[in-house]
Amino acid sequence: MLFRFLLVLVFLSFVDRVFADGKTYPIVERDAIEEIEERAKNVEPVIKKKIEESQEKFLNFTGEPLKKASRSYSYYVDPTYTVEKDIYYYDRNTNQWKVLYPKGYKFNPLDYVPAVAPDMVIFNPCDKAESAFVENMIKDNPLNYMLISTGCPLKNIQSNFQVFFLTKELKSKLKLKETVSVVSIDKQKKMILVKVYAVKGGKWWM
């Protein structure tokens, strides 16, 4: 199928080259089909190599890296956001643009969360101790957790649950530095709680 597709592309390129100036040229030595087939054979290995390189890059993707914690601790993250510039809305009654949220306005996104989101567990699936610790943590209520991988290539992840990858933005906003980190919402304080566990032998240590 790929070869036929390439054959069509090369043929269209050949036709465009031949008729670009409105003139026609006689075929002197080789049949046009033979020339097209030869070009397609030369192009196919290049495309195949590019596909293989893309697949390898995808399978080696690890997400943003974190180091393994040497001690257990916890901290809070204030999600309060400050509007950096005026946000406008269009008032149809007056046919004018008006300020909805002025620059400097602060709000807490947690005030608008209708339900408590699942706890996020950031760990290295390639670390056997961390994997055992996480499996034991979520075994009773796996749907209450969102697993996020860091430092482990996709091709090496073996899990019965859906695993996401740590992004640069999430790492920055939650001030994540070490694994295993468990992120949850403290509704009373209206803040984000991050608990970091120093894991060894499938158990966590202070």
User: Which descriptor suits the 3D outline?
Assistant: flat
What is the N-to-C succession of helices and strands? HHEEEEEEEHEEHEEEEE
Strand content: 25-35%
Q: What is the helix content?
A: 25-40%
Radius of gyration: 28 Å
Query: What average pLDDT do the residues reach?
Result: 81
**Unreliable parts:** 5-12
User: Can you count the helices?
Assistant: 4
In total, how many beta strands?
14
**Secondary-structure class:** alpha/beta
Question: Largest beta sheet, briefly?
Answer: 6 strands, mixed
Task: Give, in spatial order, the strands making up the sheet with the most strands.
Answer: 2-12-11-7-8-9
Terminal CA distance: 59 Å
Strand and helix map with partners:
Elements: H1 2-19, H2 32-59, E1 67-68, E2 73-77, E3 81-82, E4 87-91, E5 96-101, E6 106-107, E7 119-123, H3 128-138, E8 145-149, E9 163-165, H4 168-173, E10 178-179, E11 181-186, E12 191-196, E13 198-200, E14 203-205
Parallel strand pairs: 1-10, 7-8, 8-9
Antiparallel strand pairs: 2-12, 3-6, 4-5, 7-11, 11-12, 13-14
Describe this entry's structure for a reader.
There is one protein chain. The chain starts with a helix and ends with a strand. It is α/β, with parallel strands linked by helices and 206 residues long. A hairpin with a 4-residue loop joins strand 4 and strand 5. It is 31% helix and 27% strand. The strands form five sheets. The chain has a six-stranded mixed beta sheet, with helices on one face. The chain has a two-stranded parallel ribbon with strand order 1-10. It has a two-stranded antiparallel sheet with strand order 3-6.
